[in-house]
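>> Question from a student workshop board

For tomorrow's exercise we were told to take the sequence and the ligand below, predict the bound structure, and bring the output to class. My setup keeps failing. Could a helper post the expected result so I can at least see what it should look like? The ligand is zinc ion.
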Amino acid sequence: MTELQRRLRERGFLLLDGGMGTLLMAAGLEAGAPPERWNLTHPERIADAHRGYLEAGSRVILTNSFGGNPFRLRGRGLEGDLTALNEAAARIARKTAEEAAGGEGRALVAGSMGPSGELMEPLGALTFETAREGFAAQAAALTEGGADILWIETMADLREVRAAIEGAREVSELPVVATLSFDAGGRTMMGVTPGQVLEALGGYELAAVGANCGNGTGEIEEVIRRMRALNPSLPLVSKSNAGKPTWIGAELVYDGTPEVMREHARRILELGASLIGGCCGTTPAHIRAMAEGLRGVTT
Ligand SMILES: [Zn+2]
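>> Workshop helper replied:
Here is what the output should look like for this input. Compare the format with yours to find the bug.
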């Protein structure tokens, strides 16, 4: 049994963290700049963001490596730093979790692996083999840096999810989690339904499957409800955005307050998710409210 399974069994659910981008922008990251570079240039600011979530009650934190695959780094001129950026991301998260550890032991570190940003064959030029190799390189560095879990997220294309899982498995024995973003009436941008996800990924023995980002709390609750109806035992992940985004002037603002996320946390647990956190627009204040919402709930 992995440590993640042991803790899930013991507690019934685990609180995840929230968005990273918003916090880094508030700390001075320029819009459009690659956040992963800060793992090397401003590690203390990444640690501060993790600390905010750990203090809010997060028991699993995601590394600052969402765009740390070779496809996205190439566009930033950072491909040569792939290993250093991902290793540092995992090291910073692990060190911060160790320093913040209380009586329950330290929070687990999940190595974030986001999408390539490219279209896979036959729609685009990215081959399965190239994608698999690229994700393997990222997974190896996250493992080396001290991650406890490899966390594939915000995916839309099942072929890309499979390439990332197979790449991860090739270089690492860590448990693998995969979540897709459902933002088009219960489907991903590539048209994938929750049922298709469970069917396509069923053979991989993933530690958990689920949804992140997307189109507000109502839509992700429906996705989790459907997944639970189709599979009664698989651990499910939910990381919802803080409501829906609207532009106010030049700023993208999410309408979900911490109170909205507190109620959402209770509902999503009831619907069957056991790894529960937030995505875009969520901050430590949202995660703290979610921790309060889940306090005293037993599963
Ligand atoms: Zn998001």
